[in-house]
User: Fold Phage holin family protein from Massilia frigida.
Amino acid sequence: MRLLLTWLINAVALCALPFLMSSVQVTNLGAALVAALVLGLVNTLIRPVLVLLTLPVTLLSMGLFILVINALLFWAVANLIDGFQVSGFWSAFIAAILYSIISWALSTLLLKKDGKS
Assistant:
């Protein structure tokens, strides 16, 4: 149940982005649900490999290169999913940060610490 609620929270966070940035477009809730699912899978499966492969650059940049990785993955998912569009890298960079903040805030408000929802 918690996993489904987290997925819905992430979809709502994606739906909120076009209201904050005109360079991000989400056509409907279905596109947001699919994009949230794909973003979750990409962040679970591909992101750790990329972080490991770019570890020297990440260490030299004091961890800031992880923001670039997040932006590239966000942009890649937007290019894969119909109904979810980001106009460019810098838009993806800012949108990935906003998406994380919105998702974190909603999760903090809606999910309880003890694992029960």
